[in-house]
Amino acid sequence: MTYADLSAESTAAGGSPSLGGYLATPPGPGPFPGVVMIHEAFGLNDMTRRHADRLASAGYLTLALDLFSEGGARCCLVSTMRSMLKGNGRPFTDLATARTWLAKAPQSNGKTGVIGFCMGGGFALLVARDGFDAASVNYGRLPGDLEDALRGACPIVANYGGRDTTLKGAARKLEEALTSLGIEHNVKEFPTAGHSFLNDADLGPAVLRPLMRVMGIGPDPESAPEAWQRIEEHFSRYLKN
Question: N or C: which end of the chain has fewer CB within 10 A?
Answer without folding.
Answer: C
